[in-house]
Amino acid sequence: MLPPVVWLVVGCHRSGTSLFSSILNELGGNLPSNLLRPSLSNIKGFNESWHWVQTNDLILKRVGLAWDSVVPTNKCIESKSFIETQKKNVINAILSGFPQHQRLEGPLIIKDPRICRTFPVWERALTELDSNIKIFLPVRHPFEVIQSLV
Predict the structure, then answer these.
(1) How far apart are CA 20 and CA 95, in angstroms?
(2) Is the pTM of this model over 0.85?
(3) What are phi and psi for residue 6, nearest 5 degrees?
(4) How many angstroms separate the CA atoms of 118 and 98, rounded?
(5) Reduced to 3 states, what is the DSSP secondary structure of residue 109?
(6) In 3D, which of 39, 31, 121 has the Cα closest to residue 73?
(7) To which H or E segment does residue 116 belong?
(8) Under a CB-based contact definition with an 8 Å cutoff, are residues 66 and 110 in contact?
(9) 39 DSSP β-pair partners
(10) Is the dihedral of CA 23, 15, 38, 116 positive or negative?
(11) How far apart (Å, rounded) are the C-alpha atoms in residues 48 and 11?
(12) What are the helix (H) ranges across the chain?
C-alpha cells in the first residue's frame, strides 16, 4: 500500500525540478525505483520514473503535442471524458514507480516536468488513490531556462 502523502514537483524543464526533488528526498521523501538514467546535461539524474515519462508522452501525443511543443496545451486535456480515459494509465505508472513489495515510509516524490501539461489527469489519478497531494512549484526565470537549453 502506498503512503497517503504525495509530494508532487511541478515545473517546466530546466527549472530546478531535479534539484528540488533531490532536496525532498534528503528530507525523507521516497523517489521511484525505476529512475531515468543521468545524462550529460543532468549528471546527478532526473529523479523521475521512466514509466511516468512514457505515460506523459502518450497523453501529450493524444492531444497532438510533445514535451517540447511551444503551443499551449489543448483544453481537451481538462475535459472529464479525456481525464477519465487517461487516469488508469497514470495510476498504473504511479504504482509501477513504487512497487508494492518496496517498504515506503514518508511521502512519495512524483516529478516529471511534463506534468505541467498533463496535471489534470495526474490530479484525478492521485485523488482516486486517496493521496494527500502537496504541490511544489520551483520557479526559474524564463530567460535562464532558455539559456540552459542552449
Answers:
(1) 22
(2) yes
(3) -125, 125
(4) 20
(5) strand
(6) 121
(7) helix 115-128
(8) no
(9) 42
(10) positive
(11) 13
(12) 17-26, 50-62, 80-97, 115-128, 142-149
Q: Cell 487516469 identifies what position?
A: 87
Overall size of the chain counted in residues: 150
Instruction: Please check whether residue 92 is in contact with residue 38, taking contact to mean a CB–CB distance below 8 angstroms.
Output: no
Q: Which value, in Å, is the radius of gyration of the alpha carbons in the chain?
A: 15
The three grid cell numbers given for residue 141, joined into one nine-digit string: 526565470
pLDDT score at 102: 67
Label residue 45 left, alpha or beta by phi (over 0 means left) and psi (-120 to 50 means alpha): left
Helix (H, G, I), strand (E, B) or coil at 102: coil
For 75-133, the pLDDT digits (tens) are 999 999 999 999 999 999 999 988 776 677 889 999 999 999 999 999 999 999 999 99
Q: Which grid cell sits at 146?
A: 532558455
Cβ(33)–Cβ(41) under 8 Å?
no
Angle at 84 between CA 110 and CA 130, to 5 degrees: 45
Report the distance separating Cα 66 and Cα 56, nearest Å. Answer: 9
